[in-house]
Amino acid sequence: MNRSAYALIFCFFIMALAGNLYYPKWQKTRGEATISWDVAGYYLYLPALFIYEDIKGCGFADSLLRKYESSPYFDQAFKHESDNYVMKYTAGMAVQYLPFFAIAHAWALNSDEYPADGYSRPYQFMIYFGCLLIAFLGLFYLRKVLLTYFNDNSVAITLILIALGTNFLEYASITNAMTHGTLFAWYSILIYISMQLHKNPSKWLAIGAGLICGLIALTRPTELISILIPLLWGSDLLSKKGISDRYDWWKKHFGLLILMGVCSIIAGSIQMIYWKYASGDWIVYSYQDQGFSWLKPHIWKGLFSYNNGWLPYSPVMIFALIGFISLYRKSKQVWTVPALYSSLFIYIAFAWDIWWYGGSLGQRTMVQVYPLLAFPLAAFLQSISSTKWIKYPVYLIMFACIYVSMWWVHQAHKGGMFLTEQMTKRYYWNVLGTYEIKDDNLKFLDTKDVYKRSPKNTKVIYENKLNDGSVYTDCSLPPIEGTGTFCVTKDVKNSPIFSIPLLPGAAKWLRATATFQTGYKEWNHHNMTQFHIRAMKGDHPVKERFIRVHRLLHDGQLKDIHQDFKLPKDDFDRIEIFFWHPNEDKELRIGNIKAEIFDN
Rounded to an integer, what distance in angstroms lies between the CA atom of residue 80 and that of residue 347? Predict the structure, then answer.
């Protein structure tokens, strides 16, 4: 076997290891199970149709949600004006799950251990296993198409970089019942069929291309643009001759074009038939208040933001973007579709208002476009392969990128340092490559002002043990020993404001400390109690920072927590300290407030 074949087998091995030994979601429960959150929505068609025969009413959903806790609430379908429930997500993934669901259902029906309810262990495992097989198929076909254009060594490295150096590993091996790993596979197969279609036109290839495009659009409707791949593959659209040649080809094979279009419509019509049956309407916008900002796409954030942007978590793909130059020099015919499609895909993906795509590890939506980005990546690798003084340093950087990506996958599941929808630039760079969760680093999730050294020559400018009882409030927690206390509750959300006279030039930093005691840790960052410091000038805030206290507390813990505040250069006349508690029932007792200033 050649190197790319060994690389493919190696990737399969690591993927299977990740999904079965490192973090087998199919063995997990509640929101960590394979069939949970969005996947529970993709999948809902199957138990509704084949087990409970209640695809309009979804009357079984509440009891199963209470039993398996696959998400905190039932939002996988919504009540339509027809008074029926309509699924939020389109049916593409349900179609792909179907053969594996059938095996799981037969397994459960013949088992004394597992209920045949659609959500027990056989269903969790088979959905995971089926999606892993489809992802394997995608890498297999990606290797086949790349070998048509690039040398074996470049293809081998490309496969390893994509499979292990990007978030593909997460969405093909662990959280693999999402749409992205399977779409990756269908795009790889679609490219292969498109290549064959233009070499040896046949009705079977046209049927295959049409059905795959229909299935891709049935999975994610915005990816209807996948039809561009079989229409344009191998075209040089930068020249009049290239455009003319492609027009002449389709004119000659017009029947195949019609056949491909009909097959796409047949596959996509599954959704329209369902909508008509469930709601009475042929078209239903099931995302309701979620939509697109076509004139203001969030492209910069989608690509570069540390809060679930693409490249910070899959940095090796920077070489794919650079590689478009190498691909253009190599072949304009091969360059056209990857460049056009990737650009259009990125625009559409990040025009979506929820551009961070929920609980995503580094832009999960980009995974399905990797088969097209593999072309410029392979072109870049091949272009540097003959220059040792460039090649080996680049390989070293790529190896580091693989480490970074796999490290983030680990942190998303076992390390605990990846906190979805909360990441910041300062937090990212302070924790990168480490394995110990530290309080000071957690503060970077909320504030820019963290003094990580031990301050010297501090001067205490304020101390309040709350012993006068003026701010005491009742709660179920015991009082903090030796001090008066204030308790924030669902009814008492705001503490008094503790004001400290201070003028610019007194010091560079202020550190405020308070003692906190909690009964139970709050895990939802939106509901965590906030510890605020602000500099004021009259009635106007000059600067304000806060940290979320529950990040630094555990159940029942009594702890002193400090927050640092870099004093502004703008004019101010006082510092204010206060605490704010969102609408949540987890109480928090606060006491012994102190402020000190220092320069270094």
Answer: 31
